[in-house]
Design a protein that fits this description.
By secondary structure, the protein is an alpha/beta fold. Helix content is 57%, strand content 11%.
Amino acid sequence: MCVKLLIADDEDMIRNGIAKYIKLHTDRYETIYLAKNGQEALDIIYRHKPDIMLLDVQMPHKDGIEVMQEAYRAGVLPCTIILSGYDEFRYAQQAIRLGARDYLLKPSRSSDILKKLNAIADEKFKEPEEPVLLPEGRNRIVERAKDYLEEHYYEDLSLTEVAEYVGITASYLSNLFSKQVGMKFVDYLNEVRIDHACTYLRQNYLKNYEIAYKVGFRDEKYFSKVFRRVMDMTPSEYKAGKNVAG
């Protein structure tokens, strides 16, 4: 899925920072246009017809509401998320009447903004029927998801959260894992967690319940159950075996 995105904000740090974050964390946006005022935003809309627009309210020359009004009258208004430092309900009312899909207040985290953008992109565009494959049959989306799990395995992760990070729906990511990895998403996540748990067990200075929490489990009994299923032994048996071997 390739989407054209317009980011319109008069603050250079915000405009460029969001664009940089998006480029680093997804390749689904074919082109990202930047505008530092309302008139530039309109010029880009008329010339390039972006699919989605992240729009600041207070900008020089034309404010965000004026941009939406003119683009709406011309029939070229992109799907719009309003980003504003002004917590005034009248702005939200005007923006929603014009068709804004969401209204975010500054400061908003780039990760939250990207989630909103990806949600709109998922609604607006169909997902590809066939995933793009990397060399050796690997899927780029799955590899990014696996990298994310490796970095955040100790957090309270969900399929939906990881799917939002890689820019697809939860059901699509679930299907990709089954096809490309040969197991369910949750089973792969548990294997990652158990692998890290084994490292802690070999070090032999943390109690089992401490290790369980460190690797992302919130219940020691469930941790032991998953560990036994993955390793065919209990955490205590694994620890004892490694100590004897050492």
